[in-house]
Design goal:
Blueprint (H helix, E strand, L loop, with lengths): L7 H11 L11 E7 L4 E5 L12 H11 L5 E8 L9 H8 L6 E5 L5 E5 H4 L13
Parallel strand pairs: 3-4
Antiparallel strand pairs: 1-2, 1-3, 4-5
């Protein structure tokens, strides 16, 4: 599958962000472009740190940028990397995204244009959500 042409601007934003990734340890630069319900796009890249757990994934950088701008409702994310196969978001990013967009459409695009598509519900079938805290 290839990314629908209507979402080409998201791939371009993710690729542009990936070009600025700080990935000197993993050599795994990633870009993400998160689209809001009203069509705004927020991009992010991964930012690694010599203390590995201190790094931040591209998806969470895009999400944090969007949240800082007041966005709260998202419809899709496009993720790009230099890997041969389309790469889905990691578990922590899935959990962070479900907080704001349980119905998120997720696209991962390889350099040759091959694309994988999932719903966030497929990637995180039993999420821990704000509703999980109702009896606390």
């Amino acid at each position: 599958m290839t990314l629908p042409s209507v979402h080409a601007h998201l791939r371009a934003a993710a690729d542009a962000a990936r070009a600025h990734a700080w990935a000197p340890y993993s050599h795994f630069p990633v870009g993400a472009a998160l689209e809001t319900e009203d069509g705004r796009v927020f991009a992010g890249c991964n930012v690694e740190n010599a203390s590995y757990p201190a790094g931040t994934c591209a998806e969470r950088v895009a999400l944090g940028t969007a949240i800082a701008a007041g966005a709260r409702r998202f419809v899709r994310v496009v993720i790009t990397s230099q890997q041969q196969d389309p790469t889905p978001p990691c578990g922590i990013c899935r959990q962070a995204l479900v907080e704001f967009a349980p119905a998120l459409e997720v696209f991962a695009v390889a350099p040759d244009g091959r694309t994988a598509r999932w719903s966030l519900a497929e990637l995180l079938p039993a999420p821990f959500t704000p509703a999980s805290l109702e009896n606390v």
